Structure formats: C-alpha cells, structure tokens
UniProtKB/TrEMBL annotation:
Protein name according to UniProt: Mitochondrial glycoprotein
Region described as Disordered: spans on this chain: 1-28, 63-82
Domain of life: Eukaryota
Matching InterPro entries: MAM33, MAM33_sf
Acidic residues biased stretches: 17-28
GO cellular component: mitochondrial matrix
Organism of this sequence: Mantoniella antarctica
Length: 141
C-alpha cells in the first residue's frame, strides 16, 4: 500500500512571466508545489511541480528512503535530489506524468490550486486594505 495525494505548497514561490511590454494580460503565473507519494515501508517520491492553472509541470523527482537504512540505523546524509529533470528521456517524463495523473495530480488539481491561490490572494489584499485603513484612521486621532 501507498499513501498518496499529499500535496503541500512549495516555499510560496510564484513565478510570473510578463509579455513583451509587461502587459498584465501577458503575465503567466506559475505556482510551485510539492507532491509526496509514500509507500508503507516509508520510501517516498517527492515531485516538485508547478502549475499555471491548466497543466502540471514536473521540475524534479527525488527518491527518499525511510528514516532507517537497510541496517536499521538512522541515516543523516542529505539524499540525492535526482537528475536534471529536463534532461530525462521524454518517455521517462511521460511516465512520471502518468504516475501522477493516476493519483489525481492533473488539470483538475491544477485548476483547484490556481483558484485557491487567487482566493487567498484576494483575502490577503482585503486584510491589507483593512490594516492600512485602520492604521491611517488611528493616526488621524
């Protein structure tokens, strides 16, 4: 058995690519996130991904052993982060995408992540407006 579907936000990175003249319409937002698939033995695959709201792009796949090595001793070494994903054969990349799709990491999730991001951004903006308004109002008194 395996546990899968654990998705957590990356480190909050949101990359944008602007059009030629920096037009807002031309901005493409990429939200980074990680997906960890863990088997019963504790071994995991950690996928570093990004989405534009329509597709999921993988940028790295890391294999992580359980907490113990084969001798039952704890390991303290930093695991190999995996090869340069873009240099992997296209068929290997395609198999990783299929592996994720079977586990629900697909266009529907990409859309959900983007909608959640936009909702959170709007809430943060509204909170910021209230805070600034309160600050300015208190300053006048």
């Amino acid at each position: 058995g395996e546990a899968w579907g654990e998705a957590r936000g990356g480190d909050g990175k949101i990359a944008t690519e602007e059009g030629e003249e920096g037009e807002e319409e031309g901005e493409e937002v990429q939200i980074e996130f990680c997906v960890t698939v863990t088997q019963a033995e504790g071994e995991s695959l950690v996928f570093t991904c990004a989405t534009d709201g329509e597709t999921v792009e993988v940028s790295n796949v890391q294999h992580v052993n359980g907490d113990d090595n084969e001798d039952g001793e704890e390991t303290s070494t930093i695991p190999y982060s995996g090869p340069n994903y873009d240099e992997l054969d296209d068929s290997v990349q395609e198999e990783f995408h299929k592996y994720l799709e079977v586990r629900g990491i697909d266009g529907d999730l990409a859309n959900f992540i983007m909608m959640s991001h936009l909702d959170k951004e709007q809430k943060e903006y509204m909170r910021w407006l209230r805070s600034v308004s309160n600050f300015v109002s208190e300053e006048k008194q």
